[in-house]
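Why should sequence recovery work at all? Because a backbone constrains its sequence more than one might expect. Tight turns favour small or flexible residues, buried strands favour hydrophobic ones, and helices have their own preferences. The token representation captures these environments compactly. In the example below, the structure is given first.
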């Protein structure tokens, strides 16, 4: 093998092993890591919230956070936030597209909105079994998140913290690092009631 060919192969292997942050990661060997990295890359344009609005994502205004309260028969949300949800209703349906999440999540910081993660929502009555993406089961089914989503909107959902480190995990429902304090529309939600499929 020519030296130049060997260098090319090594360079390709190096690029494949480096995540979007530019650093090697233990998770680089996970079966869905390449897809997750591709998703993250495809969403970089939405760091500009106006681009998100132009593409049909509209703000729910409230910066959602939870105090960690436990309620029997309700979703067990760890203490933390979700931020401000920008929803694209045209992407809410029975077949969630892994590359087109129905919700973008932003955190208010220094008078700006910073993209921190995404969420997919699937209406409960549109599927016969629990949805799954990237090997992860969706949470739910549950009622809607009042006052932002009417409680009658029974659904499953899945979060992915693609742009903000989450000590609870990439697919956790809340992120203790997300802060809503000081934001005029901070919205402390109670745990959402779980439903029987």
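From this structural description, the recovered sequence reads:
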């Amino acid at each position: 093998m020519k030296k130049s060919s060997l260098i090319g192969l090594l360079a390709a292997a190096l690029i494949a092993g480096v995540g979007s942050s530019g650093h090697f990661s233990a998770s680089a060997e996970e079966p869905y890591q390449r897809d997750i990295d591709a998703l993250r890359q495809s969403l970089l344009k939405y760091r500009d919230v106006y681009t998100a609005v132009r593409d049909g994502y509209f703000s729910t205004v409230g910066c959602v956070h939870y105090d960690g309260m436990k309620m029997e028969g309700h979703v067990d949300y760890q203490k933390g936030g979700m931020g401000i949800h920008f929803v694209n209703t045209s992407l809410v349906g029975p077949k969630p597209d892994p590359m087109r999440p129905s919700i973008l999540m932003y955190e208010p910081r220094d008078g700006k909105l910073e993209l921190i993660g995404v969420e997919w929502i699937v209406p409960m009555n549109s599927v016969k079994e629990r949805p799954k993406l990237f090997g992860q089961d969706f949470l739910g089914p549950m009622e809607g998140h009042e006052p932002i989503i009417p409680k009658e909107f029974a659904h499953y959902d899945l979060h992915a913290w693609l742009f903000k480190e989450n000590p609870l995990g990439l697919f956790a429902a809340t992120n203790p690092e997300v802060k809503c304090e000081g934001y005029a529309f901070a919205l402390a939600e109670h745990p959402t009631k779980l439903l029987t499929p």
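A few observations help interpret the result. Helices lie at 3-17, 33-42, 49-54.
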